[in-house]
Amino acid sequence: MLAQTTRTTRAPLATPAEVDVLGTLMVEDEATVSDAPTYRPEAAGVLIALLLLSPKQPKEKTR
Question: What is the pTM of this model?
Answer without folding.
Answer: 0.32
